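If you are new to this repository, start here. Below is one unmodified record pulled from the training split, so you can see the exact layout before writing a loader.
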Amino acid sequence: MKRVFRPQAEPLPTSGRGYQHVCPHCAQPLTLHDLRDGDQGYWCHGCGCGHRAGDPPPQALRPLPQAG
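And here is the target side for that same chain:
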C-alpha cells in the first residue's frame, strides 16, 4: 500500500525536457539567468517576477508542441 504524506495539487514532471518555462501570471516565455549565489533562475521581464530553476511553480511549465 502506498501512502501519500504530502498531497500535491499538480505534481511536477520528472524531467524538464519537453516543457517551456512560462510566467504563471501572463504566460509569456521566461528567460534563464545566472543568479549571484551560483544558482539559475527564470525571469519575466514584463511582470518583473520569476522563480529559481530548481523550484518552479506548476503553472510555469507548459508542454512544448510535439515535433513531427
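Two things worth knowing about this chain: The mean pLDDT is 79. The first strand starts at residue 19 and ends at 21.
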